[in-house]
Write a structure and sequence with these properties.
- By secondary structure, the chain is of the alpha+beta class.
- It folds into two domains: 3-170 and 371-388, Gcn5-related N-acetyltransferase (GNAT) (Aminopeptidase, 3-Layer(aba) Sandwich); 173-367, Aminopeptidase (3-Layer(aba) Sandwich), CATH 3.40.630.
- The chain has eight helices and 16 strands.
- It has an eight-stranded mixed sheet, with helices on both faces. Strands 9-15-14-12-11-10 form a six-stranded mixed sheet, with helices on both faces. The protein has a two-stranded antiparallel sheet with strand order 3-13.
- 37% of the residues are buried.
């Protein structure tokens, strides 16, 4: 696709028929954690594009030495349409006071890797610029990346060299899956929604939430989506047996309710914590043994995370009413039990720092990330500002919708 005479680097599209082994070798060379500290590593299960292939449009590029054909870097990207703001409806048939979403075409960069022996040669920058070319050619107005706040090399590349600006700092909340089941409050009734009803509820109540995917139906109908669950007060008129659809529910909702969906990451990738001492591993194992032998005590055991493990991701978290956070807690307990049945070690979600329902999500601080840094860039000045203006300058809202296809 192109060549840099100084670095003698060719950036081209990933070819799974001949690049798979080389790409896996680069991934392994990049998996070097800080000495003496715990580090999280990802096993893509032999599919380098697993984290983007469920998006509407995606691309993976590799950086190759022109002389030896050695692959020394890779980058992934995808494009979708999401909510970037809201405005009042001008449709006379609808409620003119009800806000409607403003959509934009958004690109996402992830999985940037450069072999340790070829860093500081401009390879990462070259791959980012080439990926942005593809974004622009396909009509994307904005691009964003997510990185750890303390990953200074990544932050510097995107903010100093690529023109991205710090945008949002959501929290990644991770909770272990214990050897015992968690009790679900007997004051709550849980209803599993059909995908069509889940789509209707999300579009009517949450489509104006920032980053809401316009193709939410594709997400909910994906084989990795394990279901959408609604929590309502026990004793109200809504049950699994009497459920008659989201339209009726939204016309006559209870005072408080909550909803979330579950995504199966275990079949896409596995994680592994490395760098733990033998003492720490032994202590963790002892908690699991005690929990398994005495499940009625509901001990807070540490799952097996020092070997490859799977997780479930909770997305589409929302609700209304004074008890919504308590209903979220009940939904999270149900999700924990689903993950236990599915052989997962953790459940995770990502929410805005100011999310009101965050207090209902159980998590272990040691496993979680207080601020996951999202950086954004406007790709072209020829796009119309529309009703939202330049999205990169907009203040954060209370909530965001995190697409599970990109977690």
């Amino acid at each position: 696709m192109g060549e840099d005479n100084q670095c003698v680097i060719v950036v081209r599209e990933f070819d799974p028929s001949k690049d798979l082994t080389s790409v896996e070798e680069v991934e392994k060379r990049c998996e070097v954690g800080p000495s003496g500290k715990l580090s999280l590593f990802t096993d893509l299960l032999g599919d380098p594009i697993c984290r983007v292939r469920h998006s509407p449009a995606f691309l993976m590029l590799v950086a190759e030495l022109s002389s030896t054909k050695e692959i020394v870097g890779m980058i992934r990207g995808c494009i979708k349409t999401v909510t970037c703001g809201k405005k009042l409806s001008r449709n006379t048939k609808s409620d003119p006071t009800k806000p409607v979403p403003i959509y934009t075409k958004l690109a996402y960069i992830l999985g940037l890797r450069v072999s340790p022996s070829h860093r500081r040669m401009g390879i990462g920058l070259k791959m980012v610029l080439r990926m942005e070319e593809w974004f622009s050619q396909n009509g994307a107005e904005y691009a964003y990346i997510a990185t750890e706040n303390d990953n200074q090399a990544s932050v510097n590349l995107f903010t100093d060299k690529c023109g991205y600006s710090k945008f949002r700092t959501p929290s990644i909340l991770v909770n272990p899956v214990f050897a015992h089941r968690l009790p679900v409050s007997n004051r709550v009734t849980l209803i599993k929604l059909p995908p069509s009803d889940a789509e209707s509820l999300y579009r009517r109540r949450f489509s104006t939430t920032e980053f809401f995917p316009r193709d939410i139906d594709s997400v909910l109908n994906n084989r990795l989506s394990l279901g959408t669950f609604l929590a309502v007060p026990r004793g109200c008129c809504y049950t699994q047996e009497s459920w008659s659809g989201s339209d009726e529910f939204l016309s006559y909702p209870p005072e408080s309710w909550a909803v979330l969906s579950v995504w199966n990451c275990k079949d896409v990738f596995r994680l592994e914590v490395r760098g733990a001492s033998r003492v720490r591993k032994t202590l963790a194992k002892s908690t699991r043994i005690a929990d398994k032998l005495l499940p009625f005590l509901r001990l807070p055991s540490i799952p097996e995370v020092f070997k490859p493990f799977g997780l479930h991701f909770l997305y589409g978290l929302g609700g209304e009413g004074p008890r919504a956070a308590k209903f979220v807690k009940a939904l999270c307990a149900h999700a924990h039990n689903l993950a236990k049945e599915g052989g997962c070690s953790v459940v995770a979600t990502e929410v805005a720092n100011r999310e009101p329902l965050k207090i209902g999500v159980p998590f272990w601080k040691r496993l979680s990330c207080d601020e996951d840094l999202w950086c954004i860039k406007r790709l072209g000045e020829d796009y119309s500002d529309g009703s939202v203006g330049d999205w990169t300058n907009s203040p954060p809202g209370l909530s965001i919708f995190v697409d599970p296809r990109e977690f």
